[in-house]
Design goal:
- The protein has 171 residues and is α+β, with helices and mostly antiparallel strands.
- The protein is 16% helix and 38% strand.
- Strands 4-3-9-6-7 form a five-stranded mixed sheet.
- It starts with 6 loop residues before the first strand and ends with a helix.
């Protein structure tokens, strides 16, 4: 109902005596961070200061808002393979391929007091016809076609399955 919502009051053009009530959109909490952006092809580093990122309700950093802010500034990271440097793991953690899902995030504990994040963007595949792998169950048996099974899969599918396996294996 109306009692649970906050409204912004504007003048109604049709009837100046009757105010026009418009629901006020609550902005998600945000944070200003510095980003060390590693760009293809040689992982050239560039410091981007004062990048606005949204925080999720859990306090984690919305990776999608970070990427959108970088795109708005003018960085060409469309269709890139994106990862962030984890201080806890001491390595880069793959987040996903652009466009990212809305639930992609960087855990809050990864942001140090310096409020600096390291993001790596690698060139993504431009054409899916070049990103297929052939999986063979019997690579040694090349003479017999009847006992050989071949199935083509996209690289993204393989990466997703390996990531799921690692998550399940490591707990």
């Amino acid at each position: 109902g109306l009692q649970n919502q906050i409204f912004v009051q504007k003048m109604n053009a049709n009837d100046p005596n009757q105010p026009l009530l418009i629901p006020k959109v609550e902005e998600s909490p945000s944070l200003i961070v510095d980003v060390i952006l590693m760009l293809p092809p040689d992982d050239e580093k560039e410091l981007v200061r004062n990048v606005k990122v949204n925080l999720l309700s859990s306090g984690d950093i919305s990776f999608q808002s970070l990427v959108q802010s970088l795109k708005t500034i003018g960085y060409a990271i469309d269709n890139a393979i994106l990862s962030y440097f984890s201080n806890q793991e001491s390595m880069f953690v793959w987040v996903g391929n652009d466009p990212l899902p809305k639930k992609a995030f960087i855990p809050a504990h990864e942001l140090k007091e310096s409020r600096r994040l390291t993001i790596r963007a690698r060139a993504g595949a431009k054409n899916d016809t070049f990103t297929t792998m052939t999986m063979s169950s019997e690579a040694n048996n090349t003479n017999s076609k009847s006992g050989r099974r071949t199935k083509e899969r996209k690289i993204g599918y393989i990466i997703e399955k390996v990531s799921l396996w690692r998550k399940l294996y490591n707990g």
